[in-house]
Prior knowledge:
Elements: E1 5-13, E2 16-19, E3 24-25, E4 30-35, E5 38-41, E6 47-58, E7 63-76, E8 79-90, E9 95-107, E10 118-126, E11 129-137, E12 142-147, E13 152-160, E14 163-171, E15 185-195, E16 199-206, E17 209-217, H1 227-230, E18 232-236, E19 242-246, E20 251-255, E21 261-268, E22 276-283, E23 290-301, E24 304-314, E25 319-326
Parallel strand pairs: 1-9
Antiparallel strand pairs: 1-2, 1-3, 2-5, 4-6, 6-7, 7-8, 8-9, 10-11, 10-17, 11-12, 12-13, 13-14, 14-15, 15-16, 16-17, 18-19, 18-25, 19-20, 20-21, 21-22, 22-23, 23-24, 24-25
Amino acid sequence: MATSHATFYVxxxxxxxxxxxxxxxRTPGLTPLYESVFxxxxxxxxxxxxxxxxxxxxxxxxxxxxxxxxxxxxxxxxAWSGSYSFSLLAPTFGERCEGRAQFSGxxxxxxxxxxxxxxxxxxxxxxxxxxxxxxxxxxxGEIRMVGTDGQQLIGTMTVNNDKFKASLLTYAxxxxxxxxxxxxxxxxxxxxxxxxxxxxxxxxHFNTDRAQFNFSAMSEYNRSSSFAAISGxxxxxxxxxxxxxxxxxxxxxxxxxxxxxxxxxVSLINPGKNLYRINVEIERCSDLNGNYSGLAALAxxxxxxxxxxxxxxxxxxxxxxxxxxxx
Length: 327
């Protein structure tokens, strides 16, 4: 029987408990990727039982695994504790293991201001289908989000205590448009709850589409940023095979497989956090020519630290989203 320790944040209100994603899963060899937020009832005596699912990367198996949790415990005052059992399944190998551990945590008090900044990984549910997405958010609420369908959302989040509202524009990938309007962009809004360094979740509304989303904070955001950290050679897939070079002073140069050229500059936002501002001039590229700006962040690829550069930039007409592989 395996044993581990975990730390959670929790919010309680009117007999309801919300289990925010795991902050620290101290199980050797497992790195959480994203998790669902679970809400459930709490008895008048403070007892609760809850289940939730987590995806994590296993360095031991070199694959993504699924974990299922069942938690049982008590809420008392500003603290809560109990025990949980978990089941780990590695779909690639069909392997399963189970264990039991103790957990403890503290309540998130709604009156405390929460910052939305971070690198966030999660999922969006629209018309019964789930889509993975990643979001980059600055300390002052600038947000860029990209889903697996290639759409990029750009906007601003404002936070009042732990509640947020966001005004957003979403852009279709180059060459695509939204079927309900025939346009390449749509305006919308979102609202929900944010727990600093833990989770944000809520709903959004664009034209006739309504979606629910749930994001978990990625630990990579808490790494320092520098030109030394981001410099190097990268490969992307914006137009065929793209090659990029970022110098030790943050200068960008590169070209695409069909002859487009890239020049620009990376700048630091907060040296204590892994988030960068990026400006790129695209030339010799007909439809995509112009100046683009946005955000970027380094991310791990399994056990490879800072092996990828997540880039979300926009121009006057088009948006470009890519994950560049470091070489």
